[in-house]
Amino acid sequence: QSVLTQPPSVSGAPGQRVTISCTGSSSNIGAGYDVHWYQQLPGTAPKLLIYGNSNRPSGVPDRFSGSKSGTSASLAISGLQAEDEADYYCQSYDSSLSRVFGGGTKLTVL
Amino acid sequence: EVQLVESGGGLVQPGGSLRLSCAASGFTFSSYSMNWVRQAPGKGLEWVSYISSSSSTIYYADSVKGRFTISRDNAKNSLYLQMNSLRAEDTAVYYCARAVLWFGELVSDYMDVWGKGTTVTVSS
After folding, report:
1. Environment class of A30 (CB within 10 Å of its CB; exposed 0-12, middle 13-18, buried 19+)
2. pLDDT of A91-100, one tens digit each?
3. Do residue A47 and residue B110 have CB atoms under 8 angstroms apart?
4. Residue B46, min C-alpha distance to chain A (Å)
5. Which parts of chain B sit beneath pLDDT 70?
6. Contacts A–B by Cβ distance under 8 A
7. Is the N or C terminus of chain A more exposed, i.e. has fewer CB atoms within 10 Å?
8. Are B110 and A31 within 8 A, CB to CB?
9. B49: closest CA of chain A, how far (Å)
């Protein structure tokens, strides 16, 4: 059971927009800690996708966006492309002095 | 090029020990905190341990506390994870990841550079 809760899977057709939620609690996201997102393509290491709720590292397309509200955060992917098919993880910090990940969401591009 | 390369994984019997290494290049290793993160087969990411740039601050996940020890050698640009009393549930790919401090509403950090990982299998 992960500290941060994500849907196990989401799907969408090419060109569509999908969102992935990440729900925490008052000891992590709700406490004020920001959320970061990682993309893991099949068979590869995770890659930073969004940091500080909504900031994209250099090279990440603006089709990817993030937001945070209360005890939850969301990752939105617009203009879905086949190469976006991957696992996505949210990550935050918990008052127990640890970094915490969501359970991961598998995105399928139909 | 900024790079992290893990090594030291392998097959070990339950109760055994293993030492993982992570070689850093392309950046000033001594300026960054570092993390170990693992991923069991078919499962999600699990944070394992954190060490600050000067080794003054260290944290562990409850699942490994008392069995794993994180350390670093800034002169050798290397990060280590000593794993003792290994269990079947420690079987995973182990990644080292660079930590970047983030000054949001509260101070935290995120992981901006990851290695390719090294596989640890605990089995008899």
Report:
1. middle
2. 999 988 689 9
3. no
4. 7
5. none
6. 76
7. N
8. no
9. 8
